[in-house]
Amino acid sequence: DPKFFVDDHPNFAYDHYKLAILFSATDKNDDAMSHYQAALEVSRKSLPDGHPLTVELLYVIGKTYRNQDDATTAEHYFQEQIELLENSLIATHPVIEIKQAMGNRIHYLC
User: What is the DSSP string of 37-64?
Assistant: First the structure.
């Protein structure tokens, strides 16, 4: 039995991420968001918790929502990013120290 369905293979997360970057660079933001979301879905299924791609996707999606003046949705993604960082890094890691020093606003530093 294969470990992943074809659509859930980790490489597809990276492929969607790369497509999203290209769409974003050409101001096709709806297409970019669609691929960011697809990349996040695949990364959650196929990569370990706290994987750098998943953390990056949460940040980029949150930033995109923030740039669209949707602070509530942005905060959801930023908070999930922080939780992944906290759960995947040791408590003394510089990222955690910075987050604590900035009042849990690590996403504004990225």
Answer: HHHHHHHHHHS-TT-HHHHHHHHHHHHH
